[in-house]
Amino acid sequence: VRKDRKLNSVSLSSLLYPLSGATMKLCSPGMVPSDEEEMTVKELSINPTSAVLRVQPDRGCAQILMILPLTSNKFEIRWLDIVDAAKEKKKVEPGAMDKENASEQLDDSLTVSHDVMHTVEDGVIRSTNILQIETSESALNSVDFLVYGPKGTRVTSVSGYALSRWTAGQYNTTSSMIPVRAYFKSSNLDSSATLHVHTESDTDSAKKEQDLELTRIECFGALRQSGHIGVIKVANSVELHQRKAVGLARAEPTDIASQLRLNTDRPIMLAYKYLNPKYTLHLSSTSHTAMDTLEAVVDRIHYEALAMDTHIMHSIVIMMKSTHLQYLEVEGIPSHASMFTLIVNGVPAKPVKGGGTENSLLIPLLVGLNTEKANDGHGMKTSIELRYFTTHDPLRGQGSISLPLPQVTHPISVVTTELRLPKTLSYNFTGDFGERSSDRLKYPVPSAFSYVKGKRMVPRDYKFSRLDDVMEDETSQDDDGSAIKIDIPQSGRSYFFQRLLVVNQALTLNVAYAAIPAKPEPASLWDKFEKFFR
Hints:
Elements lengths: L1 E3 L2 E6 L8 E7 L10 E5 L2 E3 L4 E8 L1 E7 L7 E5 L1 E4 H4 L10 H9 L2 E12 L2 E12 L6 E7 L5 E7 L2 E6 L8 E8 L7 E11 L6 E5 L2 E4 L2 E12 L4 E9 L2 E2 L7 H4 L6 E7 L5 E8 L8 E12 L3 E12 L4 E5 L6 E7 L2 E3 L2 E2 L6 E5 L15 E12 L7 E6 L7 E10 L3 E7 L35 H4 L22 E10 L5 E8 L9 H8 L2
């Protein structure tokens, strides 16, 4: 058994055969197993770390059961001391300081480097502290520090290498602080340690203007403590300015520890440095009323209608961007419309009836999204294909057809329309698109897209062609019977219309049709000769 300061260790190496398990009894010096109190091991560790340990208190000693990996030909056990099992179960009260550890800590020369980043959010200020503690005389057993802040300040977590546990006392209203103690494992012989301390303090979001006191940390028994302070803002409706700064000097944001500076995507508004932990920093906060912004915008809507003898097939392609919109409400759908089919981002879906008006549909938007980019905070581009059928009177003689375009409540950049009508009739157009049609569209027809990735496997030397673009991937489509895609056949003569920047306006296209008058038959040669001699 080897002893280094307070640490005991025993090791076995150069084993001829791998050892899968072992049992060991550890006894205190000068004590033999007898009918005395049960003993246990304090701060026990083993190498390799993949081994499994089980400590059983026994009379006068501690029994250790070990399960070792077969790939290891050596192992080492380290422990601090063998103590009474009943006394070891007693917990230290939060914030209390035992005299033995306190005297040891005061004898050491502690130097502390402290960096903190304060994040101002709506109703709360979150602070991330990094404490780099060094001592020159002995290993660190525990560190005590005080967290100063306004009423309601709380310590949410303390973490660090070789940290055994930490305790925090109650908030002291007299001195406005919280005592915190961090305990390190005794098997750690390093004379330095790094602690990450997270704190929170509440703010009154109902007040338009208020004074914000930022938390600070003061290590107990430190010979010297210095550090840097950074302030960033997450709440866009809050304006921050320095109100009171005592014991601080302005610094560059690059002076703050890289662990804090590089872990935020927000600019550092204020940066300070200090040489004495007894500083004071207050900020003035002004809350502004945030205005509502658009949740979605429609880039393109292409409406296509094919009129036959008694039926009209409608097709709508919508290209839009949305942030948190779950459904798109489409109004102006005829009440006698039937046989709906809906494709969202290349995935079949089912529309639901809207609650606003009778002739409205709700199109689900959270379908077929790109899972890699759906949660990045940016607007997702969505492709929608909606098709349905309506009926009308037979296209004979004279008559008219009214085609109300589906309406959405969001701004539309470009609306294009293609109307296919039989060639046997003449037409006059009225409505919101004007009386004259165009021979072609100035804007290309939008193409629906899909985020679904194909799973078809091809050989390495496979030569791709245009047929691969139209070839269906059987594994990429969910056969759940949600919808069937219907293509519009190419028939009749096409008439094109377009409108730019449509906002909260219902567009209508009226078509008046009439039979084309028959052309007179040309006169025969005898009729022309007879007419000439008259």
